[in-house]
Amino acid sequence: MNIIVTGILLSGTYALVALGLTLQYGVARIMNLGNGETLVAACFVAFWLYTGFAINPLVGLLLIAPAAFAINWGIYAVALQPLVKRAKNRGQLEVDSILATFGLLFLLQGLMILAFGGEYRSYTFLAERFDLFGNSYGLNRVVAFLAAVLIAGGLWFFLYRTRQGTALRAVAVDPNSANLVAIDVARTAAFAFALGGALTACGGALLSTFYTFNASMGVVFTMKALIIVIMGGVGDVRGAVLAALILGIAETFVASVIDPGLTLAATYGLFILVLLFRPQGIFGRAPT
């Protein structure tokens, strides 16, 4: 029970990061390899706000999320939209965007190392015991999980109960058909990319409340988010949440029962199994 609960608490932040990437790839068609750098940047900003100005990380989300939204919209408009306009088909756009965001990854990582150095950082926030089902957990992990659930619930409401959310889902399914029903596909894609960045930043800010971080760890979280997105099915919100849950529990099991150094190996093991036996994702349908 302890492993399952710990894995579920960890999966909350994983789900937010994966939802960010699934919006960027599923709607905007941009496989953003710099996604993890957004997470790390949010960790540093939350750290800076808390240690420098005593701003609660949960309150800090009100600053971090809009800032990440605006910055990601700017990145899309300046660096990625020209690739979208130039691409003759989806395959060319995916290759171009992978190469472009691969460079973006190193640019952002270098800037953060320059600004914050390479050492690990952490801060103490709600480092108290919280008893649940007869076991003790960190209160910061519980609060981060509940905040992640609240944000994911808000995203679900937006996607399935609002007109703008319906437009995002329409573009994800078929951009050409969406254009025929007066949806501004270019603007919707930019919005999805920015919203994905904001979700990832929220995941990073929440993760920083109980996780030690440094400027070089973004690529690990990009790979984890990519694995979750593929496991859950590209563009599938339900699948991303369930895959994050599976990954969180699997990592916790391996770290607790076998060896903490093998968590990444377990992650990639799951990834290979999904590619071999269910490449369309948990809820996806095999192509006919």
Protein architecture, described:
The chain has a two-stranded antiparallel sheet with strand order 1-2. Helix content is 75%, strand content 3%. The protein contains 11 helices and 2 strands, in the order ααααββααααααα. α2 runs parallel beside α4, α3 packs antiparallel against α8 and α9 packs across α10. It has 288 residues and is mostly helical. β1 and β2 form a beta hairpin.
Write the layout of secondary structure elements.
Elements: H1 2-26, H2 35-53, H3 57-86, H4 90-116, E1 129-132, E2 135-138, H5 139-161, H6 163-173, H7 175-180, H8 185-207, H9 218-232, H10 237-258, H11 263-277
Helix pairs in contact: 1-5, 1-8, 1-9, 1-10, 2-3, 2-4, 2-8, 2-9, 3-4, 3-8, 5-6, 5-8, 6-8, 9-10, 9-11, 10-11
Summarize the structure.
By secondary structure, this protein is mainly alpha-helical.
